[in-house]
Amino acid sequence: MRRLACLAIAATPFAACAEPEASPGPAIVVTGASLPLPPGAPAYGSVLIERPRLENNASGRIENLLSDVAGFQQFRRSDSRSSNPSNQGATLRALGGNASSRTLVLLDGVPVADPFFGYIPFSALVPDRLSLMRVTRGAGSGAFGSGAVAGTIEMASATRDQLDYVDASAFYGSRDAREISASVSPDLGGGFASLSGRWDKGDGFQTTPRDQRVAATVPAMYDSWSANLRIAAPIGANEEVQFRATLFDDRRTLRFAGADSRSQGQDASIRYLSRGRWQVDALAYIQARNFSNIVISSTSFRKSLDQRNTPSTGIGGKIELRPLTETAHALRFGIDARWSNGVMMEDAYNANLPANPITARRQASGDQLTTGFFIEEDWTPSGPEGRLVLTGGMRADRWAIRNGGFRATNPAGALTADTIFADRADWVVSGRAGALFHLADALALRASAYSGFRLPTLNELYRPFVVFPVTTQANAALKPERLKGAEGGFDVTLDDRLTVSATLFTNRLDHAIANVTIGPNLRQRQNVDAIRAEGAELSGRAKFGPALTLSAAYAYSRSRVSAPGALLDGKRPAQVPRHAASATLDWTRGGATLSATLRYVGRQYEDDLQTDALPDALTIDGFVRLPVARGLSLIARAENLSDSRVITRNAGGSIDLGTPRTLWIGVRYGH
User: Fold this and answer.
1) How many domains, in total, are found in the chain?
2) Which domain holds residue 415?
3) pTM above the 0.70 mark?
4) What is the CATH number of the domain that holds 380?
């Protein structure tokens, strides 16, 4: 009973409890870390972004840091200060952009994607709060398989030893930009608590080229804040409970005065970990989100659409068990589930009349449920120190799309449309298998094959959207995407002096959801036959002496749409570059850091028919940190130091631009 009580109490702030002991013993101290990775995980060629890089970067934005990983991309090239939040889907390996994430993004094991849209709230994910990010490309297995069709991005919160009691920073940047963050992380018995927050605001830059600006044109202003509470408390010698709650609010204005968007969230999760003879990872979470967006006509500059309210809820959890087995085997199995519900409420306006009257009120809603059973085993035939590791896993998922409907009324309230969509449900079986062979102490060969699936989001099923002059229709008949793929590669590791990884991959995404042109300035979300993606990924890190480090990554992809009889057949998917690369040169000594990051993204296309091109772009970022007193550092940051012109959108010649040269100066206390 005491243990059950502790589980409940640990979900409240500043709680910690432990099993009574017959006699004094060593203190139980928790770190807030997850369970260790299984031995077969390296077979899938994961990439790590570690804490020093998370702390020392030019933008302070998770999405920009993920660009260090070969093959990562968002729907658009802009970041969370100058894009519509609903555009911020994350994907990997050139599978095409459609604004929803094809990559499963987890924070401490909990999915963070918006329950309705599928976008990632990047502005609420603060790099300083994290211990590391692990990116695994290729369809996933394990927990929460739905959504991991292109891979998995796992973020882990900072552990006890990485958190100072007090940490704070303040920055001032170009165009009256301000960024303030702070955290306090006290010990509580054998556990700890960490309360943190960040606020950033800026007048923004002009996303519209000078020759396309009008009186209604405004910079991309932003104003966002987030707060996070995390608690880790022991409830036994090998057991702990972790609680996390996050609140965020993000407001942006894009292109025209009045074109305002807002995204909000209130998330909470509780996680139980046991590191005893039976390792256990059990968690439950809830997400409450909302989104609103106003569309301004680019001809009359009046309101044409008010997506005034899109409340959504996500509830889920998992139980994963790892029993103690013979030393050559590592087994894990469990069950996970996720339920999502959302309602879109919007008003359409006649932007051609000065009175700007409402012409229609619309509402769309639905819910989804996925329940999965998973099992995975790693086998080292020659024992723990053997050179060969084999791994394999399977999932069986039951999915359901239910209660979908669309309703419209005229301004007087008379019903003009009332459609109820049929419920659908089915089973999907997916899995992955891999092998890792240490040919020598410094050289490992790896190969893997995998399959996965992704349900269409409620947004793709039921909500149309407008990016003037193009309207994109929803499609309630969309099928789940299914991916099959394989890859092979090698890893070279020479102590901490040199690491090199290379991977060749081939993927086929069946029933891929794409925005397909069906008329002048009109598209619809449709399942195309497939997207085929093949390519190579290279990454490496070299250390020159004790202070200088070079890290680099490059991705080449050959991606094509298979849609026999359609105009887009054989073309490259929208928003997919063929080449992408990054390199960071870092010098660190005695608490001082100087670094420069070069990023290149190749030519890509805005649309499915390859009529609107986005030219390639090369940018340079810089970071300088100088200690000035105990725990206090002076920091300078520079984004796009060369002030390169980065085109992020091109709709028939109507262009948006990415971040220009942006300079920051600030101070940080802690770390």
Assistant:
1) 1
2) 2-669
3) yes
4) 2.40.170.20
